[in-house]
Specification:
- By secondary structure, the protein is α/β, with parallel strands linked by helices.
- This is Protein NO VEIN C-terminal domain-containing protein.
- It comes from Streptomyces prasinosporus.
- InterPro entries: BRCT_dom_sf.
Amino acid sequence: MLSGRTCQGTVRSLIGHTICFTGRVLVDGEWTVRSRCAELAADRRAVVKTDFSRKVTLVVYGDLASKVVTDSRRAYSSKLVDADASRHGGRHVCVVDADGFSRLLKRRPAPCLELRRSGAGRVRPVAAAPAGSEILGGPLRVRRPGRRPSGDLTLDMNRLDKATAAHEATVGALLAHLSRQGIEGRTHAPGTPAFDAGWSRGADVFIAEVKSLKGAREDQQIRLGIGQVLDYAHQLRTAHPGRRLHPILVLEKRPVDPRWSSLARSAGIRLTWAPGFPGL
């Protein structure tokens, strides 16, 4: 039985969960009745119950996700009320919507929804604020590399690196790697240091500086990246002392000198590189 907030805001798998449904569920764009949902869940090693009980650890919120609940006595509403009461009693019950259930069927993690009372004892599920909502911004996209003006005589290594195709290719590979784990890469939030990529896992927030190694001395680029990500992490920890923050230095490829991994580790930085991104 799951007790407390063991999910840390994310349901990792259907395995081991005892679940119930509020009604039919829109699974990958197709309305699916509860009996079929139960079969799909059982295939993923979940136990399915018709009604809510103390054994239930996961509620799948179905057919009224976009409507107003008008009858609190109907089963789909009472299950959310019961889940909310269970949470307030100290036993956390996870809740996912149709999209979350579809992700779990594909063996991908899904966000556990918060429950909010909306009057007359009714309860509705809402998306929880991302773990790094004050740090992470919108979805990260790969940019088209720009050109440095020929008349610019000031050498800004950070701007120059961000303008290279190798840098953006590494960002794209990192986004694809995270996506395969069900994680969306994010930009930095307004007013925060301009790290290259960020993401969250539960309560942990990760910020990454990306460095290409083409057209520059490897040691120069890695030293620059270490200094930048340490600076970013220090600023963010000062502004958000309650956050579990993890600085990451991402390289275009494995560095020639193996000493960089131990140096980064001694500074509290995780060093990784394309294309496999070891340690992420």
